[in-house]
């Protein structure tokens, strides 16, 4: 019933939609995840109005569009989302919008699929957590700059200059991350988290990544999953495991209790930002700040 109402709302909103641009001439842009919101703000700067549907701590796997979201979407000049079925419950909304001549832009769709990590959890057949490979996020930045320039050609120089500056910051981030990780012995690079959001990070920096819930938070970890992972932690002598900001911490606490009950001590090494950034206005509320915070938290806890 809710889906039917939502689809009707989308259709009506399109008929009622007039001029999308604000009176101040800025492009109206709607984004899904906090990572994409931060990116678009960096590239668009003062020439765009950006509205992010998802805030800090929000799980994109489970997010459902409200009627208020639909209003934002249909009045947007541009819509950016991750794709690869990360925002699984928004797919129907985006498909309906495409049939109404508005095409939301999935930033991950341009990535060479042969380089992606496979997954049976998602309809795309790929792990969608691609922002944890900085090289992929650079592709996102270039795509955003190109789309903004196409939509607003008179300001293309501004957008491409912002892209250039942001890519330079991402270069610096890559060098910083590499230096921090090099202080952690390779045999200690085992990352245990609530769900498998960090596979691209692991592939990039030589970590073995194990998630209790698999790739999607829509799946629940059972008792056998907890016991199996507890045995793995003991066997590998893992020092710390990690909570995620967008996933309830009870599963990791249950894992810790299972390990400790077998006479092996494992600490909760901290909270990592996986599917969402930290609070707006904080260092962790930016993509670059989040990434560096995560790496420092991981390395300090596992040393």
UniProtKB/TrEMBL annotation:
The keyword Transport applies. InterPro entries: AdhesinB, Bact_metal-bind_prot9, Lipoprotein_PsaA-like, ZnuA-like. Coiled coil: none annotated. It comes from the Bacteria. This is Metal ABC transporter solute-binding protein, Zn/Mn family. Keywords: Metal-binding, Signal, Transport. Pfam families: ZnuA. Belongs to the bacterial solute-binding protein 9 family.
């Amino acid at each position: 019933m809710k889906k039917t109402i939502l689809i009707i709302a989308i259709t009506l909103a399109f008929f009622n939609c007039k001029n999308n641009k604000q009176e101040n001439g800025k492009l109206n842009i709607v984004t899904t995840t906090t990572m994409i919101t931060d990116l678009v703000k960096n590239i668009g700067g003062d020439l765009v109005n950006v509205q992010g549907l998802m805030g800090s701590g929000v799980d994109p796997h489970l997010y459902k569009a409200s009627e208020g979201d639909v209003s934002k979407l249909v009045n947007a000049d541009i819509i950016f989302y991750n794709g690869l079925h990360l925002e699984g419950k928004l797919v129907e909304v985006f498909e309906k919008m495409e049939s109404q001549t508005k095409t939301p832009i999935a930033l991950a769709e341009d990535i060479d699929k042969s380089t992606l990590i496979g997954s049976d959890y998602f309809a795309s057949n790929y792990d969608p957590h691609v922002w944890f490979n900085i090289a992929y996020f650079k592709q996102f930045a270039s795509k955003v700059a190109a789309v903004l320039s196409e939509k607003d050609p008179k300001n293309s120089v501004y957008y491409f200059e912002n892209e250039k500056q942001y890519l330079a910051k991402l270069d610096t981030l890559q060098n910083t991350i590499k230096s921090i990780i090099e202080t952690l012995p390779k045999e200690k690079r085992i990352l245990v988290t609530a769900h498998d959001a960090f596979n691209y990070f692991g592939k990039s920096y030589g970590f073995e990544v194990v998630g209790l819930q698999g790739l999607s938070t829509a799946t629940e970890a059972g008792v056998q999953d907890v016991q199996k992972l507890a045995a793995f932690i003991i066997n590998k002598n893992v020092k710390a495991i990690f909570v995620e900001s967008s996933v309830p911490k009870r599963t990791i606490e249950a894992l810790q209790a299972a390990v400790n009950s077998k006479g092996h001590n494992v600490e909760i090494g901290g909270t990592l930002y996986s599917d969402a950034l930290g609070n707006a206005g904080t260092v962790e509320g930016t993509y670059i700040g989040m990434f560096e915070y995560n790496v420092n938290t991981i390395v300090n806890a596992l040393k």
